[in-house]
């Protein structure tokens, strides 16, 4: 259903000093807004505007009455009594810590680094159709590290099995590396929806062209 997909949209989280921290789901963002521990930051014509949950409902009502571009309809949540637009950015009102420089090694970041593309066939898949593959298998003492783990589709993972790429006559799309920047942010910035995030990120994040 559309509202379920909308709740899974990504929201950039800032600390109280407007420094980017991480990315969360819209569902989690609305929880923080309802608890009044965060506010919405909207970038409109180059200007920053802040809203709490109630005022954002009013803004959403105004935008809905004004008419929405067709591509924006998936960014809305419909309830029994009102419609509300999914924010792109929120700011934590009481959190002043800065983001950790260490990038976590986990499935989510690996999928983002590899852009949800199987590193053997090159096709892009939804996350639930991807798995993680050890380039050098564990049976050959392959390590679980950034440089030995790639995302692979079910078919390619099954085809490769417990072999090395050379043994399976398969080639990697690119050599896996440890990312220098948060791969989720870098991946999301390729979408026009998250263009406003650029205002709060170092230029190195958005040096890739948006599409």
UniProtKB/TrEMBL annotation:
Swiss-Prot/TrEMBL keywords: Endonuclease, Hydrolase, Nuclease
Residues covered by the HNH nuclease domain: 105-158
Q: Which GO terms describe its molecular function?
A: endonuclease activity
For this protein, the record's Pfam families field holds:
HNH_5
Highest rank taxon of the organism: Bacteria
- Which SMART domains does the entry link to? HNHc (SM00507)
The record's section on CDD domains has: HNHc
- Do you know which InterPro entries this protein is assigned to? HNH_5, HNH_nuc, NA-targeting_endonuclease
Its protein name is HNH endonuclease
């Amino acid at each position: 259903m559309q509202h379920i997909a909308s709740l899974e949209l990504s929201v950039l989280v800032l600390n109280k000093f407007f420094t980017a921290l991480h990315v969360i789901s819209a569902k989690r963002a609305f929880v923080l807004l309802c608890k009044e521990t965060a506010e919405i930051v909207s970038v409109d014509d180059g200007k920053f505007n802040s809203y709490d949950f109630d005022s954002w409902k009013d803004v959403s009502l105004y935008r809905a009455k004004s008419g929405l571009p067709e591509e924006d309809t998936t960014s809305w949540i419909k309830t029994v009594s009102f419609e509300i637009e999914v924010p792109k950015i929120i700011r934590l009102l009481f959190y002043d810590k800065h983001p950790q420089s260490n990038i976590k090694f986990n499935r989510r970041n690996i999928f983002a680094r590899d852009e949800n593309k199987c590193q053997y066939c090159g096709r892009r898949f939804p996350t639930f159709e991807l798995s993680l593959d050890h380039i050098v298998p564990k049976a050959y003492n392959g390590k679980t590290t950034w440089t030995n783990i790639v995302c692979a589709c079910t078919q390619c993972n099954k085809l490769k099995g417990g072999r090395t790429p050379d043994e399976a006559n398969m080639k990697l799309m690119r050599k896996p590396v440890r990312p220098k920047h948060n791969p989720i942010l870098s991946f999301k910035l390729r979408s026009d929806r998250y263009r406003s995030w650029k205002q709060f990120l170092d230029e190195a994040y958005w040096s890739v062209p948006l599409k």
